[in-house]
Amino acid sequence: MYQSNGIPLCHCGLPTEMKTSWTTRNPGRRFFGCKNHGKRKSCRFMSWYDPPMTSRATVVVNGLLKKCNVLERERKKERIMWVFLVVCMILVWIWK
Length: 96
Hints:
The longest helix is centred in the last third of the chain and has 41 residues, at 55-95. The chain is built from one helix and three strands; from the N terminus they run βββα. The chain has one domain. It is of the alpha+beta class. A three-stranded antiparallel β-sheet has the order 1-2-3, with no helix packed on it.
């Protein structure tokens, strides 16, 4: 069933919301899912909005996601190191 605006209704009868899949098989692919998904009264309704990606596009997107995750981890380590250095400099300055 669909609402007048084209948004599907889930099995609960509620309007669905657009979500994005970040699984390895469907990275970045949008779908309509139940608002109750993952809650106590969970409904497993989902309906794809985007067409399937080609296998090459899936490989490329997964590779880019992996690189982004590595860069984010490195950036987080650098931020921690900068905070540590600033705290050390402040402590040295205070002790003098």
